[in-house]
Amino acid sequence: MLQVYTGSGKGKTTAAIGLAIRAIGAGRKVYIMQFMKSLAYSEQKVLQERFPELTLRTSGKPFFIAEEGTLSKSLQDKLGDSVVIFPKGEPPHDYVDLIRNDFKEVSGAATSGKYDLVIMDEINVALHFGLIGKDIVEELLNKVPRKVELVLTGRCAPDWLIEHADLVTDMKEVRHYYDKGVEARKGYEY
């Protein structure tokens, strides 16, 4: 099955990790590739240390990227050097190369027969930003053995992916404490 977790609400990665833990509890092997993330999130340490049946990789840099016009000036000022702004349709070449190379790795894992569940965290955002192409992702979707469960997460899942999926969850933001000025909190957002 192909599962897609998307939408503007919080919880897409959290849901995928919950599914990974459930799969491990059922004796399954799990592979997680977190695109556009570095090893800076609290769950990564516990997943790596306590679950030998799980392989976790990251494909990102210690900064965020965003297209011009998508962040307010105040948010850009607040993020400072931790965000790289790029013109629409022109993502940083080094980031594109990094994502595409690591996509080859997750493709190998998904088609190897070694894993029952493969999670591509934030791949939808990588697609949205043009860091990876539709054709490359579709090729993988067509090659994955039927016994492998795939989960693709991230905002902005493209329509073609939603149409292809067996399960789609659209996490809708109703309210978020960020709007009240609450910063990201360790253990809850990272």
Would you give an account of this structure?
With 190 residues, the protein is α/β, with parallel strands linked by helices. The chain is built from seven helices and eight strands, in the order βαβαββαβαβααβαβ. It has helices at 12-25, 42-50, 73-79, 93-111, 123-128, 134-143, 159-164; strands spanning 2-6, 30-35, 54-59, 64-67, 83-86, 117-121, 149-153, 167-170. The strands form two sheets. A six-stranded parallel beta sheet has the order 3-2-6-7-1-8, with helices on both faces. It has a two-stranded parallel ribbon with strand order 4-5. The two termini are 28 Å apart. The mean pLDDT is 93.
Write out the strand line-up for the largest beta sheet, numbering strands in chain order. Answer: 3-2-6-7-1-8
The beta-strand count equals 8
The largest pleated sheet is described as: 6 strands, parallel
Average pLDDT taken over every residue:
93
Give the termini separation: 28 Å
What's the number of helices?
Answer: 7
Q: Classify the helix fraction into a percent range.
A: 25-40%
- Beta-strand fraction estimate: 15-25%
Overall form: globular
Note the run of SSEs as H and E: EHEHEEHEHEHHEHE
Global Rg: 16 Å
Key phrases:
globular, 37% helix, 190 residues, 7 helices, alpha/beta
Secondary structure elements and pairings:
Elements lengths: L1 E5 L5 H14 L4 E6 L6 H9 L3 E6 L4 E4 L5 H7 L3 E4 L6 H19 L5 E5 L1 H6 L5 H10 L5 E5 L5 H6 L2 E4 L20
Parallel strand pairs: 1-7, 1-8, 2-3, 2-6, 4-5, 6-7
